[in-house]
Amino acid sequence: MKDTQEQIVVQMEGIDKWFPGVHALDNCRFELRRGEVHSLIGENGAGKSTMMKILAGIYPKDAGTIKIRGETVEYFGTRQAQSLGINIVHQELNLMKHLSAAQNIFIGREQSKKARFLVDDAEINRKTAELFQRINLKLDPKTLVGSLTVAQQQMIEIAKALSFNTDVLIMDEPTSALSETEIEELFKVIRDLRSQGKGIVYISHRMNELHQICDRVTVMRDGAFIATSVMREITPEQIIAQMVGREIFESHHPHPDTSKNEIVLEVQDLRRGRAVKAVSFQLHKGEILGFAGLMGAGRTETMRLIFGADPLESGRILVKNREVRIKQPKDAVEHGIGYLSEDRKRYGLAVNMSIEVNTVMASFKRFLKFPGIVDTAKTKTVTEEQVAKLNTKTPGISQLAKNLSGGNQQKVVIGKWLVRDCDILIFDEPTRGIDVGAKSEIYKLLNELADSGKAIIMISSELPEILRMSHRVVVMCEGRVTATLNTEDCTQEKIMYYATLRNEDSLSA
Fold first, then answer.
1. How many helices (H) and strands (E) does the chain have?
2. For the chain, how far is it from start to end, CA to CA, in angstroms?
3. Whole-model pTM?
4. What are 463-494's pLDDT values in tens digits?
5. Which helix (H) or strand (E) is 354 found in, with range?
6. CATH classification code of 263-499
């Protein structure tokens, strides 16, 4: 057997990186061996993604050395990194919506062998089909990416990375939008790559995943290296302590009975094509109503209809017992409905604008002194209050949203709807890409909102989260509601039963 040094495929030492006003990485190090899955973990803003973007050639380092297979390298971009066998699957999707899945995967590599300037669509579709079969993704390669769900787009990103001759695969929150079944399929792919001697960097906030799939774990905190440990020799509690530098205690929040409370939202027989089929439910004041289901169940599609993001074919929407017509998101907001999308960059943020602008944009009229004159003192005060309340890591409220970590971007979107003070809040995967410390803060916030009388719909792919946070759980499968469950006598197994129940009729339990 080769010694450990010969097994090292990536070695990063003394890495520094500065952004305007932020020392993102301070003397950091990381090591990856052949045939291992190495977790890189830390709170949002810890520097994980920045470290890996340097390895992938996206950012230049400001100091330090990088060795690939024992040779010191200086990067000049992603193409050089790819030529060295290094590829990254980003947490934030990086696909062209107007192109097909196959075109996205092989963009820049479509050239026909027969004619230099012709694209061989048949060949790239064939290769894409092989990749999809490898990761058990049932999808036509010719499907336009813009018509796909976030989970399907995530799987395409993974297929794209695997299409290169990859020795080092970096996965940044790869399962954040995947169902349990899809995660198992992904783990099969990862184990297969590991058996081939590939090195996998696995960034995730889900502790149960780390112990299932990872061999070692490196913890970062506030842009600095903390420790590297063998995964089987460290507990989740020890990892969390290293991540946050403090103890996190999450007490159980008792769910009060809201069944007698005022019904603030009722939807009746909502329909749109094959995605949403006769969906009906009620939401009470002070309730957190969880929505569970597998990918393609229609949860997000239903909420987009309620918010006016997609046109409604038929059905009724009642707010406080009065039927309303919602044709666009503006109408929903006027009726007191706020929507935090699962795709925050596409639908939740103006990424090239500041935290301050993003925070007040849904409530802009409130901050006008006179027509066309903004009360900047008021917008500043309100934004600073939200940054402090949500513990958003930023050098200041003038920071552009695109310069924040994924989790902190999520907090800005939440802050926007808190400022709007909506009575009905729809949270679609609110803790997606958020670390364990920030999750605790979000859970506390949602409970406080419900206790204050806000009505909350929460879509989540994490069943423990659904059971922990919800008063009731609506389960969907293939566009239909298959069950409405009380969490007191509900289990993950029961939810999964109804999530896979292809039944024409809605059931209640």
1. 17, 22
2. 57
3. 0.59
4. 888 999 999 999 998 899 999 999 888 888 88
5. none
6. 3.40.50.300
